[in-house]
Structure formats: structure tokens, C-alpha cells
Amino acid sequence: MALSILYLVFDLLLGVTAFSPEPRVTWELSEVNLTHFHEPEVFNYSVLLLSEDENVLYVGAREAIFAVNSLDISEKQHELYWKASEDQKNECAKKGKSKQTECFNYVRVLQPLNKDVLYVCGTNAFQPTCDHLNLLPFKLAGRNEDGKGRSPFDPMQSYTSVMIDGELYSGTSFTFLGNEPIIFRQSQQNQLRTEYSVLWLNDPNFVSADVIRHSQNMPKGYDDDKVYFFFTEVSVEFDFVGKVMIPRVARVCKGDQGGLRILQKKWTTFLKATLLCRMPEWNYIFNVVNDVFILKSPNLKEPLIYGVFTAQLNNIGVSAVCAYNMSSVEEVFAKGKYMQSATVEQSDTKWVRYNGEIPKPRPGACINSFDRAMNFNSSLSLPDKTLQFVKDHPLMYDSVTPLGNKPQLVKRDVNYTQIVVDRVKALDGNTYNVMFIGTDEGTLHKAISSEHGMHIIEEIKLFPVSEPIQTLLLSSKEEQRYVYAGSNSGVMQSPVAFCEKYSTCVDCVLARDPYCAWSVYRLTCVNILQEEFSIWDTIQHINGDATSCFGQFIDNVMVAHHKVNLGGTVELKCSPKANLASISWKLENQHLNLENPNYHPLKDSLLIFNVKKEDTGAYYCLSEEKWLHNIIFSHVIVKHVVELQRPLHTTTSPNSPATQREGNSMTLKLSPVVTEGSTTQIASTQIVVTTPTEETEPTSVSWMSVAFSPETRSTDLKFHVEKTSYLTKSNDSSLFLVLFLLFFVLFCCVFAYNCYQGFLPTPCLKFRSTLVPNKPATDFSDSEQGLKETLVEQSNAQNQNGEQLKPSQDTGYETEADYGNGSIPHQDESQKTEDNHNKDKPFDVIYDIKYADSDAEVD
Ligand SMILES: *[C@@H]1O[C@H](CO)[C@@H](O)[C@H](O)[C@H]1NC(C)=O
Ligand SMILES: *[C@@H]1O[C@H](CO)[C@@H](O)[C@H](O)[C@H]1NC(C)=O
Ligand SMILES: *[C@@H]1O[C@H](CO)[C@@H](O)[C@H](O)[C@H]1NC(C)=O
Ligand SMILES: *[C@@H]1O[C@H](CO)[C@@H](O)[C@H](O)[C@H]1NC(C)=O
Ligand SMILES: *[C@@H]1O[C@H](CO)[C@@H](O)[C@H](O)[C@H]1NC(C)=O
Predict the structure, then answer these.
(1) CB 397 within 8 Å of CB 794
(2) How close is the Cα of 703 to the center of ligand 3, in Å?
(3) Ligand 3 in reach of 377 Cβ (< 6 A)
(4) 631-644 and 555-564 as β-strands: parallel, antiparallel, unpaired?
(5) Contacts of 553 (CB under 8 A, 6+ apart)
(6) What keywords were assigned to this record (predicted)?
């Protein structure tokens, strides 16, 4: 109970920390120019395949396959309906499946076989079928191959596939019931599959598969190409009350031919390892992988693996992106320890590190030139010992740790489902990896992670309704890059950037978008991929430093004219596009004192009551964004001109709307509140630099502003130095501070209480034991914290009785300590720390705690 409160406090803290960046800008579907593909009566657009040479995007949907122009997907080129027959549908319904939702042919595999043929598979009303799709003409060959192992039977089950040199590698389920998972290679001579065993695959949810050509740039036969599969499965090594999910990477070698006696027609190179993704500060573990993208690029030293993760109990909806370098994955498979199951008397399977002798050649390794030199020419000639070992030990003990040992991005209140990553060379010469991440609500987040921290450049609402993005694809053409997203309702094509939407230099630079730069000559924000730009005529700083925008003053600013009666009310509208910006107001060149009771600032407007003569003039609404804590960049987003209505001069009645032409601007009058206007060229950009000081004295704020009037086209430079309180902007931060203090105090109380009760691990317990010397530690000490920790940390738990463990006779395998009647006797903390010195014992035992009734003990 107490622990769940503690957990909640953690969650709250998690929310207020800077771990959850807000997208700087949110684009609604109506604001951006996206292209859409959808056929009436066709749903579930779940498979996409791009042919960049031909500019064709192939779309696999329910009972249909389309070919569309990849530069404009609304342009359909070919269509093919591939339906399950009426007999098949009836048979499917007879087996208890739904004719309205399940007994259809859902396309699940769409892979290129060669230039003219695609390999396609579908669920086909629970009778998976594969076929060849000839592209010219766009017709099926009618081969009707059995699709078992390539497409699932059930459309709700997971699937992934990759075509490598004419052989299809797939991960899916093999049976009607969907209870037999399989990683399968379809090939004429060398059909291979996984062993049907929970050690190999335990209820996996496949998310992705890809090949890494390790053999390239190597002498022939030196190393083999490797195929990686990514999935979340039920862990066998963590044995709790409920199922614990765990994200994995598995690998097989392309040259695998199966074993001769052992592992006949099975993979001899199947190994898997845990992908670690967690926030070390909070011990918050993301243990479900939803999608993986392998970033390969000729100018990358090695491929990078990007995965999107959520937590199993994602009640608060936190998602993360973790990146791994390929070499760290390879290292685990090539040099890591194996995991070993050991059965103890309670018939519980425990998992330990295998410390015994490893047969040679190394089990699960690809055959390389070294093995060939030893006369192991193929997996068929491998010794039985090696094959038996890999059959029993497919899981690695070591986990794959992410780059920087922490996520690239953590975001609250969102469930990420898909990811693709693009590489962009910015004008500073650095190359940035830009992540495009799809959510379960049909939006796309575009983010970068650099030494300046995580930053979500923009959020794009791709679909009119909230629905999960099922698949994402990126075109990597030099100039015309697009992201394609498939969902149940259709396919969307979005450009990778919306540079032209940033109307001012400050806005363009603050976007921190590697694709965008401000053109000094054109005075627009341009996409650097589409044309040649030199660093001399463009401004781009990925760190968001907009100081060079000083001097770039021509902005397109909306001007609105208002005519108000004396004593009337006027509403001045202003909504900044940037979610991170706040607004401030100026009347002519003076900051508006919003304390004045006649001013009523709202979220996206300012109301002025009882308008007097001195309230007339030009009001500027400034969008202010903080940069590096002490610099505020602001730029005018709208100008409102408020004038007093000249009484009796107009013929219109005061309450009826009227328009009036004034020079080049059109004014819409709505008395007493008047808004609307037209755009003219005026300019004003300013940079506020606040110098932070230790004293609480008001610090000086200097700002410079430049006004550029369209009529005269002459610049009018004014420099002001003002005394302004450093604390003026902290009105709402004091509320935040109070709230924070409140939570902090609450947290301290809970922490202290838990510490006192001994629910928290060692450092606190040491502290507690000095204060409360005689309180025995409870058995509960690790259960929930432990659940979070032990998922990935194979702690070197000691035999809890402090006894030396006896080596098991001759197996060389580690075994679990015998815990008598199944409970772990408690142990004093001081003893625990002492025991840590006995690290050299021959056993590493997996921490395994089972307390079905642990809550009862606390309450
Ligand atoms: C949208 O983009 C298409 C092609 O890129 C272009 O032809 C069209 O004019 C654009 N529409 C708008 C409203 O910008
Ligand atoms: C297909 O799409 C419909 C809605 O358009 C959805 O209800 C259904 O779950 C989808 N089926 C699969 C297998 O994705
Ligand atoms: C392996 O191949 C080499 C030459 O490629 C051959 O001399 C040798 O006999 C082969 N060994 C086996 C066990 O097939
Ligand atoms: C790969 O990642 C690991 C772990 O973060 C790191 O130690 C190693 O240096 C990285 N290798 C390369 C080539 O970047
Ligand atoms: C994320 O998914 C979980 C479980 O599917 C759901 O309960 C939660 O509401 C979702 N959160 C968001 C922000 O979509």
C-alpha cells in the first residue's frame, strides 16, 4: 500500500521533471498540406512497400493491394482485389471466427522478389496463402502457396518479415490457434524454423526484422549476413505472480543450414538477448518494445537501432525511444555469457548465468573463415555438443545497453507505436538523426536528441480521427523526402518538414529543425534539402540560438484595426503557434502593465475594458520563447491598431457590422468589439537578454527594438535600457513552486516512512539502521522495488542464509539455492553488505522473489 503511494509520487515527479518535452508546434490536419490515399470500402492499410527507383508505393490492405505514385499517393496506378473465397469464409465462420471482422484476407507480407515480382501473403480467412504478384500486368500468378509460418492465421496476431536474396524470413505464429510462434525461413533448399519451446520463443509479439550485411567489405566468407528480429515476449527468467514482458533482439545467420542430427531443419544460430531501455535516475523500466528501425547509412560508422518502448503497466502512458549501436548487440552475441535454466526441487525453473565450459565452435555463432579453416564448412558439420548447447541456451545472460545508457527521448501522456529515423546534414556540417514517431492517436512526432537535450520539433496530426499508426515508412530521396503512415482508415503522405510555415527568422531558428534555415535573401524559412544554400545566406542554429536573427526584421505580421467607442470594450486576439511560447503585450514601445484593472489578459487574447483616449494606439503581441534559461527571444506575431470611434460621423448603427476601406487595409467593424484585419509588411523582432544575478535585487533588462514601417520603408532604430524586475515573469512559477514544495514534503514523508519500515534498498537502510538500530528488516524489503529492478538487473543475490553454496556435481551449470520451504529467510542489512564481499563464489543466482501476499504483510 505504502509502496503504491511511493510509486505514485515517483510518477508525479516523473511528470514535473524535464523528461517530457512538449512538441514546440502542433500542426492540425487542416493547417498542413498532406496527401491522402484511401479506397471506399477498403480498410486496414497495414503493409507498405516503397520502390524508390520507380517512385511507386505499394499498399497492402484488407483484401486489396494498390500501387500508388509515391510522390503523390492520391494518384492510384494499379489496384488488385485479393479476396478469400466464399467457401473459405464459410469454413472460417464454421470454426467460430467472425465473418464481419476476421474471415477476410488481410495482406501481411508484401516483399520484393525481383524487379518484376512481389511476394505477397495474406491471412485468407484463417488459411494463410502466399502468391507472386506480377507487376506488369498487376496480377497474381495464382500459385496459392500454403502461407503457414509467413502470415499468421489470425489478423490480430503479430507478424514481421524481410526478403533477403529471394528468401523470405518471417516471424509470426504457425497455427490456427496462434499458440505456436515461429521464426521461419522460406527457401527451396534450406527451409529453417525455430524449435517449438518456451526457451526459444515465449508468446512473442513480433515488431520488426531486418538484415545487416556483415559480409560486405570483408574477404569472401569472412563473416556472414545476419538477420535480426525484434519482439516482446513473456520472460521465463523473471517468475512473478503475473507475466513479465521483456523486449528482445534475436539473431540468425543467413548461411545457417540447420544441424545434421540435432536441430535438423532448425536454426543452429538462433540467439536472443534482452534490450534494456530504462531511466537510470528513476529505475523506470520500459519493458515493451513496439517498433524498431535500423538506421543504416554509408556515412555512419555502424548501423544504429532505434526502438520505441512503453512500460507493461502503462497507466500513465509514458513512452521512450532508446538507441543501440549494432556493435553492442553483436558483442553480446559474440562474447556474452549464456543463460542457463536450472531446476530445483520445488519444480520451479530458475535462471542463472552459465559459468561452465562453452563448447567449440561457439554455440550460435555464424560460420566464418576461421571455422572453415577448422573444417567446419557449414552448420551441418558442427559438432553435436555445440548444437545441443545452443538448443538449450538460446538466451544470453548479458543485456544490450542503450547508447548513453539512457533513452534518447522520454515522453509522457503518449503511446508511441512506430518509428523511422532520417539523417540530415545541417548547415553547421553536423549530421542529425531525426526521429519520426507515430502514436496510437494518429499523430506524428518529429524529434531530435543532441547534446542540447531532447527536443520535439513538431507534432503533426496525420489522421482526422484518433487511431493508431500501424506502419511508418520513410523515403530517402535526396530532395523529396516523405513520411508515409498507414492506419486502419488509409495512408497519409507527409513532407519531412514544414519550413515555409515559419514566418519569421526567430521562429525558423527556434524550431531547431535541421531541415529548415532562414534565407537572408528571400526572407523566408527554406528547406535546405530542396535547394543549394550556403551558410552565408542562411541562418540555422540547431541549438536554437536566434541571436543572428537580429537584423532580420522583415516579418509578415497580421495587422488588425479596431474602432471602439469611448468607454467600450475591445478584444485583441493573439495565439502563438509555438506551444512553448508565452505572450506579452506592448502598447507602442511600452510593455503593457497587465496589473491595470482595465486589462484582462486571457490565454489567447487581451480584453481592454473602458477604453479611454490614452488606450488608443498600436498594440503588439509578442511571442516569447526562452532559450538557455536566461535569454528570451521574442517576435511580434500580431499588431492591433485601436482607435476611438468618431461619434456621429458614420452612418452605420453602432451595433451592425460594417466594412471600411482605409488605404491598403480593410477593416471589419464590429461595435463595440472589433477584430480582423489584413496583412501588411511591418516588422519588429526583438531579443531580450536577462542577466541572471545572485542578488534578489531587480536586475537590469536591456532590449532593443526596431520598427520598420511599410509606408516609408525606412528603419527606425531605437535602443532602450530599462529597469525591469527579473522576477516579473515568475507569477505562475510561484504557484508551481508551492505545488512542488507540497509534493516534495509529501515525498519526503513517504520516503521517510518507507525508509523507517525498511521498504527501501541499501543506502537508505544504512541510514535507517544508524537511526533505528534494532528494527528488523522485513521480508518485504525488495518486492516491488525489486520487480522494477530485477527485470533487467541480474543481481548477484546471495544465498540468503549466508551459507556457502555447494557446487552441483559435474554439469558445470549453476543451480539455484535451495530455499527450504520456498521462502527467503530475511537477513540483516549489515550482513548483506558484508556478504557482498563473498562475490567470488562460483554461482550467480538470479534474484527471484515471490510474495503473492506481500501487500497483506504491509497492511
Ligand atoms: C499541396 O501540395 C501540392 C503538391 O505538393 C501542391 O500542388 C498544392 O498546391 C499544395 N496545396 C496547398 C494548399 O499548399
Ligand atoms: C481493421 O480496421 C477496423 C476499423 O477500420 C478495425 O476495427 C479492425 O480492428 C482492424 N482489423 C485489424 C486486424 O487490424
Ligand atoms: C571443407 O571444405 C574444404 C575446402 O573448401 C574441404 O577441403 C574439406 O574437405 C571440407 N570439409 C568438410 C568436413 O566437408
Ligand atoms: C556502442 O555503444 C557502447 C555502449 O554505449 C559504447 O561503449 C561503444 O563505444 C559504442 N561504439 C561505438 C562504435 O560507438
Ligand atoms: C496508452 O495505452 C494504454 C493502454 O493501452 C491506455 O490505457 C492509455 O490511456 C494510453 N495513453 C494515451 C495517452 O494514449
Answers:
(1) yes
(2) 80
(3) yes
(4) parallel
(5) 683, 684, 685, 706, 708, 715
(6) Disulfide bond, Glycoprotein, Immunoglobulin domain, Membrane, Signal, Transmembrane, Transmembrane helix
pLDDT tens by residue, 580-606? 888 888 888 888 888 888 888 888 889
How far, in Å, is the centroid of ligand 1 from the Cα of 189?
Answer: 51
Of 375, 376, 378, 379, best ligand 3 pocket probe by most atoms within 8 Å of the beta carbon = 375
How far CA 856 is from CA of 407, 489, 852, in Å, comes to 35, 48, 9
The 10s digit of each residue's pLDDT in 522-551 is 888 999 988 777 777 889 998 888 888 876
d(CA 326, CA 226): 11
Chain Cα centroid distance, residue 291? 9
Q: Ligand 2 atom 3: the closest Cα is on which residue? A: 488
According to CATH, the topology of domain 550-729 is Immunoglobulin-like (2.60.40)
Any idea which residue has 541480474 for its cell? 794
Pocket test for ligand 2, best of 101, 173, 440, 463 (most atoms within 8 A of CB): 101
Among 374, 377, 380, 382, residue to substitute to test ligand 3 (most atoms within 8 Å of Cβ)? 377
Q: Could you tell me if the CB of 381 is within 6 A of ligand 3?
A: yes
Q: Degrees (nearest 5) of the Cα angle 744, 749, 754?
A: 125
Ligand in closest contact with the CA of 441? 5
Q: What is the DSSP letter of 797?
A: B
- Whether 232 lines ligand 5, by a CB cut-off of 6 Å, is no
CA distance 62 to 599: 58
Q: Which ligand is nearest to the CA of 376?
A: 3
Q: Which ligand sits nearest to residue 486's alpha carbon? A: 2
Rounded CA-CA distance 812/815 in Å is 9
Using the predicted structure, report yes or no on whether residue 845 has a pLDDT greater than 90: no
Tell which atom from ligand 4 comes closest to the C-alpha of 302.
Answer: 13
The whole-model pTM stands at 0.75
Alpha-carbon distance of 337 to 352, in angstroms, equals 10
Residue nearest to atom 10 of ligand 4 (CA): 325
Grid cell locating 708: 520598420
- Nearest ligand to residue 33 Cα: 1
Question: How far is residue 721's CA from residue 173's CA, in Å, rounded to a whole number?
Answer: 71
Which conformational region is residue 657 in: left (phi greater than 0), alpha (psi within -120 to 50 degrees), or beta?
Answer: beta
> Which residue shows C-alpha cell 469611448?
566
Q: Predicted confidence band at 749 (pLDDT cuts at 50, 70, 90)? A: low
Q: Which fold has domain 192-413?
A: Methylamine Dehydrogenase; Chain H (2.130.10)
Report the pLDDT averaged over residues 729-746.
58
Ligand 3: atom nearest CA of 372 is 1
Q: How many CB atoms lie within 10 A of CB 655?
A: 8
The conformation of residue 334, written as its DSSP 8-state character, comes to H
What region does 408 belong to: left with phi over 0, alpha with psi -120 to 50, or beta? alpha
Q: Is 174 helix (H, G, I), strand (E, B) or coil?
A: coil
Planar angle of CA 31, 36, 41, nearest 5 degrees: 130
Q: Residue 674, Cβ neighbours under 10 Å: how many?
A: 24
Measured from the alpha carbon of residue 73, the closest ligand is: 1
- Which residue has 496530426 as its cell numbers? 461
Q: Best of 42, 44, 156 to mutate for ligand 2, by most ligand atoms within 8 A of CB?
A: 44
Cβ atoms of 226 and 235 within 8 Å: the answer is no
Domain 497-548 has CATH 3.40.50.300: no
Q: How many other C-beta atoms lie within 10 A of the C-beta of residue 405?
A: 10
- Quick: pLDDT tens for 111-124: 999 999 999 999 99
**Residue bearing the CA closest to ligand 3, atom 9:** 375
Nearest to 718 by CA among 856, 588, 569, 630: 588
pLDDT band at 28 (very low <50, low <70, confident <90, very high): very high
Q: Which atom of ligand 5 is nearest to the CA of 441?
A: 14
Atom 1 in ligand 4: residue holding the nearest Cα: 325
Secondary structure element (H or E) that encloses residue 749, with its range: helix 731-757
- CA geometry: angle 651, 653, 655, nearest 5 deg: 145
